[in-house]
Amino acid sequence: MANRGRLFVISGPAGAGKTEIVKKLIASHPDVRLSVSCTTRAPRPGEVDGVNYHFVSEARFKQLVDEGAFYEWAHVHQNHYGTLKSTVQKELAEGHDLILEIDVQGCLQAMAQDPTVTGIFVSPPSRENLEARLRNRGTETEESIRVRLNNVASEVATAYKYHYVIIHQDWSVVPNALEIAADEVYAIIVARRLEIDNRRDFLDHLSQSLKA
Ligand code: 5GP
After folding, report:
1. Residue 82 beta carbon below 6 angstroms from any ligand 1 atom
2. Which DSSP string do the residues of 37-61 spell out, in sequence order?
3. Ligand 1 pocket member 118 (CB < 6 A)
4. In order of start, what are the domains of the chain with their CATH numbers?
């Protein structure tokens, strides 16, 4: 029987680049799976139901909550988002390592309910970097930049609860920052695979065969 897979939750402030990092990682490592969440928000142009998200109505989402179908769920930016227990159970049972790219509340829930979950926090390299990115969008007022930076401050305060912190460097300073960050996430996944708990069966078998 295949070893059970492991669960990794990744979060961090908007603008820190967690989606790009996860996309890069999945593209080069098909042995790692990305969970498809349910959401009540409308699809954006180009998004496909069942690929980017399972797009569901508020009524259906509530029904799923009442049925206890979610591994974790949260209310983010006026919409609901949740990870189905069935997705997690299926992927782990099949031996796949699974990434949930979810908001901070969802990560904290997952880590609190299961000590085997690995939490990875993706951080911007500095306040200046984040502020510059927000300003470069050209859509934010001074007030909204201040509010967003304050929100990031409270998200960064939760980073101490995670197991790992990836600092996603500024690509204008470190041109391959994205590759480095994706490699770092993969290094965490590989290190967890090599832990003694995953090697006991192998070691037992080897010990037995040496005694024979
Ligand atoms: P977006 O609407 O831009 O795709 O996602 C908004 C936020 O919701 C992001 O921070 C994303 O990580 C988070 N999110 C996506 N899926 C889930 C989920 O299943 N659970 C939780 N808690 N957050 C999610």
Report:
1. yes
2. PEE-SPPPTT--BTTTBEE--HHHH
3. no
4. 7-35+97-211 (3.40.50.300)
Listed in sequence order, the DSSP H helices in the chain are: 18-28, 58-66, 85-93, 104-113, 127-137, 142-158, 177-193, 196-211
Q: What are 66-105's pLDDT values in tens digits? A: 999 999 999 988 899 999 999 999 999 999 999 999 999 9
Which of 22, 36, 37, 55 maximizes ligand 1 atoms within 8 Å of its Cβ, making it the mutation to test the pocket?
37
Q: Pick the residue whose CA is nearest to atom 24 on ligand 1.
A: 102
Ligand 1 and 103: CB distance under 6 A: yes
What pLDDT shows up at residue 24?
A: 96
Which pLDDT does position 210 carry in this prediction? 97
pLDDT at 2: 61
Work out which ligand 1 atom sits closest to the CA atom of 14.
10
Contacts of 80 (CB under 8 A, 6+ apart): 38, 39, 40, 58, 61, 73, 74
Q: Does the structure show a pLDDT above 60 at 201?
A: yes
Give the number of the atom of ligand 1 that is nearest the alpha carbon of residue 18: 12
